[in-house]
Structures are given as C-alpha cells and as structure tokens.
Amino acid sequence: MQAAHSVIVLDFETTGLSPAMGDRAIEIGAVKLCHGEVVDSFQQLMNPGFRVSGFIEGYTGITNRMLANAPSCEHVMAEFAQFIQGAPLVAHNASFDKRFLDAELERIGHHSNQPFACSMLIARRLIQDSPTHKLGDLVRFKQIENDGTFHRALADSQMTAKLWLLMLNELNQRGVTNPSFTFMQKLAKTSKHAVASLLAAHHS
Q1: Contact 95, 102 (CB under 8 A)
Q2: 89-107: burial string, b at 16+ Cβ within 10 Å, e else
Q3: Long-range pairs for 142-146 at CB < 8 Å and ≥24 separation?
Q4: Are 43 and 62 in contact, with CB atoms under 8 Å apart?
Q5: Which end of the chain is more exposed for a tag (fewer CB within 10 A), N or C?
Q6: In the prediction, which pLDDT does 160 show?
Q7: Which residues neighbour 54 within 8 Å (Cβ) at sequence distance 6 or greater?
Q8: What Å distances lie between residue 2 and 116, 176, 185, 200, CA to CA?
C-alpha cells in the first residue's frame, strides 16, 4: 500500500481551461516527496506551438518571448513521464491538472494510470474554517512559508507540497498516523459532516 507521505505534487500552467478546446500546457512544475521530505523537483517551460493571450501572460508572468525558445510540449512531456513514473500524484484542483496531464501524455502516445489525489478537496474537509480553499488563501490562512510567487508551476507545486504535509501532520494530531494514499483519496470524497467518523474509524 502506498503511503501518503511519498508522492509527486504537480502543477500545470496552461493557455486556458480546457484541452478539449485546444488549450495546451505552457509550464510544468513538480516536487517529489519521499517520507515527507522533498528529494527532487522538475520545472520546464514548454512551447505550445502558438502565441498565448495577453491575459495568460499577465496571469502567469509567462510571456511569448519566454516560450519562443522553450522546448516543445512533446519533448517536455516525454521527460516528465519518466519523472513521475510509478508515483501517486497530487495537485490542487486535481481535476484540472489531470485533464492536461492526460491530454499532453496522450499526444506522445503515453498513458498514466497513476492514482491522483486533490489537495483542495482534502483541505475542504480538514481546514473547514479557511475563508476559501484556493491555494493562495490556504497558504495565507495557514501561514505556510512562501516567496510570494503564485501562478508559476514550480512555486505552486512547492506550496501545495507544504500544504499536503501540513494536512498529513493535522491527521497525525487527530490520531491518523501514516495514512495511505488511498485513505487520502477517500477523505477527499467524504462529506464534511462524515469526516470525524472517518478519522475515528482510522485511529491507529
């Protein structure tokens, strides 16, 4: 059984919201956690093959000039597929990142069947008093150390990794020591009012 403290936390920056509408990834960042420690990271801009909008340039700080010399999405995703091989994956608002991961891997004939967990859904269960569960708001609410960079892939994956470890620590304090990755996925799907009984049933 895979432990929740050994995962890869990833984040995509993209040209828009939907690969089905032709949007592409323009940056991938990821942090590898092993037994709760950061042991490796991955960061790469990638050229989607077309110009990105002024809105996306402003939102991410990733400009068309920066992307002009970046390797292609296909080249980067081939490397990234090697980096994530076999690991459980975590992202904040995971349904978004999983859509882009699957779409970009599919373009290179690669398929990822790795388990995925959403730190945002888990935060909604464990940090119910946060005003919102956007990554930046959770970072401020929990006073997670950060360098003030948001909407860049590596910075966001680093902050998500810190949030993930903070939530594992909160679970530990509530009697759930060393939860499995499967347990975290189950927690994400548990209704808020049923969280206490789920944790009680998993006391070690």
Answers
A1: no
A2: bbbbbbebbbbbbebbbee
A3: 142/166
A4: no
A5: N
A6: 98
A7: none
A8: 12, 15, 12, 21
How confident is the model over 77-119, as pLDDT tens digits?
A: 999 999 999 999 999 999 999 999 999 999 999 998 999 999 9
Of the candidates 4, 148, 22, 27, the residue with the CA atom closest to the CA atom of residue 97: 27
Whether the full predicted model's pTM is greater than 0.70, yes or no, is: yes
- In 3D, which of 110, 75, 102, 96 has the Cα closest to residue 156? 96
Q: What does the DSSP 8-state code read for residue 185?
A: H
Q: How far is CA 150 from CA 134, 139, 194, in A?
A: 11, 11, 33
Determine how many CB atoms are found less than 10 A away from the CB of residue 50. Answer: 10
Q: Which residue has the tokens 């690991």?
A: 87
pLDDT of residue 204: 52
